[in-house]
Fold these 4 entries.
Entry 1:
Amino acid sequence: LKLNSLRESVYEANMELFRRGLVLYTFGNASGIDRNEGIFAIKPSGVSYAELSPKNMVLVDLDGSIVEGELRPSSDTKTHLHLYQKWSDIGGVAHTHSTYATVWAQARRSIPCLGTTHADYVNGDIPCSNVISELNTKDDYEFNTGSQIISSLGNRTPTEVPMVLVAGHGPFSWGADASKAAAHSVILEEIARMALMTHSLANGNIFPLENHLLEKHYTRKHGPQAYYGQV
Ligand SMILES: [Zn+2]
């Protein structure tokens, strides 16, 4: 089997979504790419987490053709593919229907930055996409879902915004590899949960985090001025 370490890391990322309670039954999927090979590994479609293993991850190239695998890849494979094609610096993608993030997606609301937990990961709000059109649903739905995700970032980079909500659907996240993409799904769920509770406690009287705090927290973890953590 090809690309064993990639299979292993993508398997682990999928299991992390399961262990954290972000996915039920066969919901959700994570993938990771080897940029040198131009191949990504993704969860097979409709297989339960108990039956997953590194060896049943499906390998797909950047034209969307299966390179290796007995099973069909996740039905969301074309969404992952579109993000890998568009954003050359991401190495992993994850998708769940985790409860709190999906609640915001169903309310069709972006998550405003209300605190430093959010600002540590995202430079500004977590955008909610527009609702996909009927035409784009009938014709190449999964690829077009990728387009909805990409356009929801506006002028921001996928590094500044490593997570979004797809309206009426649920969250997608990404990162340097599959493990970071899955971690961003976990963090998004926590941010969404805290934001909903803040809305409820504050009875809609919401204070967006001040720009000086947003900038401080975002830039101390990201970019040339970062000093959080170990080098
Ligand atoms: Zn979905």
Entry 2:
Amino acid sequence: MANPVTILGIAGSLRRDSYNRAILRSVRDLTPTDAQLEIFEELGQIPLFNQDEEANPPEVISTFKSKIRQADAILFVTPEYNYSIPGVLKNAIDWASRPYGDSAWAGKPAAIISASPSLFGAARAQYHLRQVFVFLDMYAINRPEVMIGKAPERFDNQGRLVDHTTQDLIRLLLQNLIDWTRQLNASRSVGVR
Ligand SMILES: Cc1cc2nc3c(=O)[nH]c(=O)nc-3n(C[C@H](O)[C@H](O)[C@H](O)COP(=O)(O)O)c2cc1C
């Protein structure tokens, strides 16, 4: 059997009862057996980016960058703040993209889940994140678009994601991410990408 695809999951919220963090925890139970999910839990320890420090970053950044590099694929699960990506997530992305020429993101396959109590499921944050992927040279999964609206209705009172439609969409997204990652890795091994 092929090696499992390793996925690094990053949630874009620091809130204790965050829906997005709860969704990322639920992804563990939805991940197929031919993949492994590691959740990056240290987002709140990342300081504000300062370009003066990019050549000698704090240890948390070196750890973050090596976790990204070790992972075969990245899964972002994010809310939307003022129609865009939360600052904590953009800040972390910026750190791991620097110094110029030493980005940890380059060439990584990626998938996005977003959730909001509103109807639109943080769709605008997803599209901003996709725009960021262009400069980062990340390969985003296009379908399915997992934009979870009315998020509070999809959890039980213990904060577990129990909505079957949402679970099925996430399973499909993960499967597409795994297939896409294997395809990319196979192309790389024969020098196509
Ligand atoms: C600064 C701020 C801006 C927000 N802007 C949006 C927004 O543009 N669109 C949206 O759907 N929800 C917005 N919200 C509401 C969030 O979707 C809501 O707080 C959500 O629960 C945050 O995600 P979390 O539960 O994972 O922390 C905003 C919340 C904050 C704190």
Entry 3:
Amino acid sequence: MTAKTHEVVRVELAERSYEVVIGAGVREELPRRVSDLGDGDVLLVHDGPDRPWPAEARRSLESTGRRVVECMLPTGEEHKHIRTVERIWDSALEADIDRRCIALGVGGGVVGDLTAFGASTLFRGVSLCQLPTTLLSMVDSSVGGKTGFNRPQGKNLVGTFYQPRFVICDVETLSTLPREERIAGLAEVVKSAWLENEDAVAMLEADADGLREGDLAATVRAVGMSVRMKARIVAEDEREAGARMLLNLGHTVGHAIEAAQGFRGVRHGEGVALGMVAACRVARTCLGETPDEGRLLALLERLGLPTNLDDHYDARASSHLVADKKRRGGSIRFVVPTAPGRTRLEAVPVDEIRRALGV
Ligand SMILES: NC(=O)c1ccc[n+]([C@@H]2O[C@H](COP(=O)([O-])OP(=O)(O)OC[C@H]3O[C@@H](n4cnc5c(N)ncnc54)[C@H](O)[C@@H]3O)[C@@H](O)[C@H]2O)c1
Ligand SMILES: [Zn+2]
């Protein structure tokens, strides 16, 4: 297996710096990169017994003489809770693994966040590596060190900051991902480009047809751009005291739409696409900005993402917005998309947001 295209992005965090390898076929680097971390056992965590990637990872690691302990998790966001974390801890402890062990998450953001939390707490922290296999986890969740799980009171309310030792984003693993899941992940890619700059948005416009159809080279470029953007912001603000909040572009209204549908209607990425449309509207109506909404809509549509905000944003979504945890004294900290590469945080009164969105 030869890597066709290959990019390495470094996340600069002093002694916690690490590399993100992006390409087609780059999972062949897994055994070597794990060897660089020492000779401990590998705790392989995944939720895809029928997918080739976990089994392949196991074989490639075992072929170097390493012991691999497998921990299979149930699939889905509804299993992102403490009992699933216990399964990770117990798989390790029952196999008599010691603190030299290396935890490896192979899967989407749910597996990644749970593996990372498990690794950050097992023996007070063991080495962590990630092999993300959804577009969302490649461009967002596997990079940046946020770990955690859900509570009945809300999502991701308990967790840690814990950086991986490396991340391998092999776009070939997306071949088994349902098309709608892959397309939903493209919303985060558009968000990344808007936070990055004009060149990034222009690149997505040029690659839009290829991205929609899953072209590998176009996907490598898009993942590379997204990871570079996220690495830059995380290096600046690891613990979300400022710049990292910009990554919430499109998420305030997107989350309200998801919540109003009980997280069973639109996918997260679809909510983010609609949320970015809403953010343009708020920027224009409440702040007198002139974001190029037509350009954003055209790009989202070419990628196969929804833009029909008025069909999704209703009174129930509006009430979730009012209850938004970011609300402070009647205002919401809103990420304002002025132009590609020009975004800022601004406190916007919730009543004005509702007026801009018509509900
Ligand atoms: N840590 C962070 O900074 C961060 C950032 C964004 C999102 N997240 C978290 O990420 C999670 C969402 O991630 P997600 O969208 O990857 O969801 P997911 O992990 O649930 O994956 C989606 C579905 O695809 C399946 N799947 C994964 N890889 C596959 C493949 N290659 N082929 C076929 N099926 C595959 C999964 O089993 C699952 O059913 C949420 O829990 C969210 O909170 C975390
Ligand atoms: Zn998101």
Entry 4:
Amino acid sequence: MASTIQGQVARYLRDAYAMEHQSLTTLEAAEKITGDVDLEQTIRGHVTETKQHITHVGTRLEQLGETPSKLKNLAGKVGAVALGAGIVVQRDRPGKLLAVAYAYEHFEIAAYELLRRVAEKAGDTATVEVADRILAQERSAAEKLSWSFDAAVEASLEKTGATS
Ligand SMILES: [Fe+2]
């Protein structure tokens, strides 16, 4: 199959689409078990943004000719293997959850940085705009998560009983 830069843009968009579904699955699970009010609020806010990211990336893929059934397949590939699965049963889960969420936001940031650069090379300004808009929200989400490190440590220590 011949490879073009625009073809690579579409591949990165498909990866981003699947990645956002993975993120949504993980965030929705995390939201219920944070053990900290501020962290819960941050995660809830990013659940809303993540749904918007799915819409933005999906719309761009459709504009590039992806069919709704192919998009559905991409979303379905995520399955049950959510990042952070298993954390639910750990007593120090607020800290572990935060670490997974923080790492995942940076994974997303890297993915959109790559997408935006390839799109720029392809002259695909619509995709560059989508990547830029999402990147700003991913960065903001990562920063907000970092504000919860202290609270997550306290909540984790409390849950493990290691308070002194
Ligand atoms: Fe995100």
